Amino acid sequence: MTVTTSTEHSADSPLLDVVGVDKTFVMHLQDGVELPVLSGLGFRVHRGECVVLDGTSGAGKSSILKMVYGNYGVDRGRILLSGNDGTVDIAATDPRRILAARRNQVGYVSQFLRCVPRVPALQVVAEPLLERGADADVAEERAADLLTRLSIPERLWGLPPATFSGGEQQRVNIARGFLPDLPLLLLDEPTASLDAHNRDVVIDLIREKCSRGTGMLGIFHDSYVRTAVADRLIDVASFIPRPTTQEPNGAVA
Ligand SMILES: Nc1ncnc2c1ncn2[C@@H]1O[C@H](COP(=O)(O)OP(=O)(O)OP(=O)(O)O)[C@@H](O)[C@H]1O
Q1: What is the value of pTM for the model shown?
Q2: Domain ranges of the chain
Q3: Bridging pattern class, strands 76-83 and 16-27
Q4: Whose CA is closest to atom 3 on ligand 1?
Q5: 97 CA → ligand 1 middle, Å
Q6: Residues with C-beta less than 6 Å from any ligand 1 atom
Q7: GO MF terms on file (predicted)?
Q8: pLDDT, tens only, 170-216
Q9: What fold does the segment set 12-59+71-105+184-190+213-248 form as a domain?
């Protein structure tokens, strides 16, 4: 287990430091075909900044978020997450420490809502606060505030989100992801199914969270949203591995 209880962490230290990461997918059901996706990936995210992963479809943007969240392993390199608990290398630690990091250091708003069936929307949103020990009244009140802000009508709060529209589910997902205050938040296309009004609400939520010190790492295909929130772009295409060529004498260039 690689956990550094850092005494060097300060307000200027990055919340996320990705160093020299390579990633190749191996298709075990396809005769072990290898698909190199990223090579030498490196970037940082600091407190209060919104960093956007930029690049064409298939460049590896979602894979980067999944590596930072500990869903995907890496072949080489380090993914250092820092916070009050010290610094942990997500690329080299064990599942128990990854779960602890998800509780205290990093949140993830995926593109699609995944939640336990038959749980009402208000509970789905309040759950991350309840899991962290908040009173039920406080958690539900904050969940209700966020659902109101995201224009989810109160008549839906007591219903499970499984039958909600795509945009409604996405807004429940955003509310759930934005409720706890974690140092780093990963956003995978959080505005993809939203109308213009709700898209603007999400832009405001992102800015407000950043102004309170949260670091964001996100993917936004919508250039309006990207321009509105991005402090910095990472050009993921510059980390696509270059194909190796075989010389006539058998040497690999
Ligand atoms: N679990 C996986 N197994 C095998 N290959 C994968 C896996 N996940 C991603 N890939 C491959 O890695 C490459 C990058 O995928 P990824 O989803 O990270 O791209 P992206 O930049 O997020 O694309 P998009 O903008 O279209 O969502 C793709 O070629 C994809 O097929």
Answers
A1: 0.90
A2: 12-59+71-105+184-190+213-248, 112-181
A3: antiparallel
A4: 25
A5: 26
A6: 25, 35, 37, 55, 57-63
A7: ATP binding; ATP hydrolysis activity
A8: 999 999 999 999 999 999 999 988 999 999 999 999 999 999 999 99
A9: Rossmann fold (3.40.50)
What's the gap in Å between 193 CA and the centre of ligand 1? 20
Pair 91, 42: CB distance under 8 Å: no
Q: How many residues are recorded in the chain?
A: 253
Give the number of the atom of ligand 1 that is nearest the alpha carbon of residue 66: 18
Burial 141-180 (b: 16+ CB within 10 A, else e): ebbbebbebbebeeebbeebbeebeebbbbbbbbbbbbbb
The rounded distance, in Å, linking the Cα atoms of 9 and 85 is 10
Residue-wise pLDDT tens digits, 19-39: 999 999 998 888 888 899 999
Instruction: Please say whether the beta carbons of 69 and 234 come within 8 A.
Output: no
- Report the C-alpha gap between 154 and 129 in whole angstroms: 20
ipTM over the 0.90 cut-off: yes
% of the chain residues with pLDDT over 90:
75
Q: Which atom of ligand 1 is nearest to the CA of 236?
A: 21
Q: Which residue has the tokens 């699609």?
A: 112
What is the distance between the alpha carbons of residues 251 and 179, in angstroms, rounded to a whole number? 55
